[in-house]
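Exercise 7.
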Amino acid sequence: MTKTADEQEPARDAGTYRAPAAERALDILEFMAVTPEPQKQSQIAAGVGRSIQEVYRIIQLLERRGYLQRDPASDLYVASLKLFTLAHSTQQIRGLSDAAIGPMRELVNAINQSCHVAVLTGAEVAIVCQVNSPLAMRYSVSPGARFPAHQTSSGLVLLAGLPPDRRSSVLEIVASMLGPDEDIETVNSYIEAISRQACDVRPSLVVAGVTNISLPIRDFHGETIAALTVPFLPMKDMTASLETAIEIAGGAAEDISRQLGYRGERLSLQMSVGAGTADRRGPRPKAREPNRGS
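Solution. The predicted structure, written as tokens, is:
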């Protein structure tokens, strides 16, 4: 009897059940999720290390179910937003988004700067919600975007908030992702500084001219489950200084945490910008009381 391709494929992990077609579908989805350029079927096959014959029907299925979109004129495929929509349908993400959106809007209205909330997924951060500044000139990121955790303030705050054993596991993955100009000692020094300061305020590691203000969002158990970040863009007519924005952003992060059930101590923010720099001291505006509403 001739075996099918699925039956001929060796198991990757001994002692586990195999579902080769499902694995190929997931490989395609993961590849397309991190590939910004439209892809031909042959490029998708090459990207997941398969032949056209192995992925052709799966690509058709994913298109039919709405996970991939095809341009009829070019036959190029892109990932749709269906996975992002499904992720936002989960109770954890939906609850986080519901708790965050009100304080985020208040924060944006108070400082005229954009803000976003990110969560950790593996060794990356994913943006789950974003509120844009009302100003014509602003900096923002797209919901659903993913970035290496060690290259963002959101990611560093999330790494700092992990239990030590889990952090070590994630940092092993981070170490394998580092570029030639990066080293794990520097990443660890950032994390240690954030642990002391309870926040991260530093020039963006990616975008020149932007200072990131990133703060932890904590849940009922006191665990850091997300990060609220303001990419502070200095402008001539800005209505809030960096120091004021830090204070108000801290209040917003507390508001979100309280709505998620956190009842621990309030953040004690250290007004320093970047690891190893001097404190930016001076009169601090009074932090607003957290919104106790639901």
